[in-house]
Amino acid sequence: MIAEPLFHLILIFSVLLPLVSLTVLALLGVAEKEVDYWQLEHARLRLEKELQESKYMQLHQQIRPHFFFNALNAFLSLARLGKNEEMIRGMEHFALFLRDSYETKQPLIPFKQEWAHTSNYLSGVHGTHC
């Protein structure tokens, strides 16, 4: 016959061990769902960011021809008026503007760089100096 303390110990383990195992399994299931949720959330945020960048690039591509044609019209007007020096300076600034436009691939750039870029456009097309 089994001693009473040993019997109690076996009884406790036979009842507690399945309960502890069930609790651990339940917690693992909850943790797995939480990890899945955060992975999905991360993927959603990444896709939203990519969508915003795509929209920005599409808008940027639509606006670019507008600036180009404005510049060509401004240079044509300066040529017709015989203002060759102003046209040359404007074309130099516009060339800098185009170089910056095609070199910059980032959707966001520092304000100082954006200001220089805008100044080159305005100096090239409108003959103003910022």
Keywords:
single chain; 130 residues; mainly alpha; 3 helices; kinase activity; Bact_2-comp_sensor_kinase; kinase; membrane
Give me the number of helical elements. 3
Principal-axis shape: rod-shaped
Q: Unreliable stretches, pLDDT < 50, 5 or more residues?
A: none
- How many domains? The number is 1
> Biggest sheet, open or closed, and with what strands and sense?
none
Helix fraction bin: over 70%
Round the mean pLDDT to the nearest integer and report it: 83
Termini distance? 101 Å
- Proportion of beta-strand residues: under 5%
What is the total tally of β strands? 0
Kindly name the structural category.
Answer: mainly alpha
SSE order: HHH
Transmembrane segments: 6-30
GO molecular function, one term: kinase activity
Organism: Geobacillus thermoleovorans CCB_US3_UF5
Keywords: Kinase, Membrane, Transferase, Transmembrane, Transmembrane helix
Structural features, described:
Helices cover 86% and strands 0% of the residues. With 130 residues, it is mainly alpha-helical. It is rod-shaped and about 120 Å long.
Task: Write the SSE topology.
Layout: H1 4-80, H2 84-103, H3 111-125
Helix pairs in contact: 1-2, 2-3
Could you provide a short overview of the structure?
The protein contains three helices and no strands.
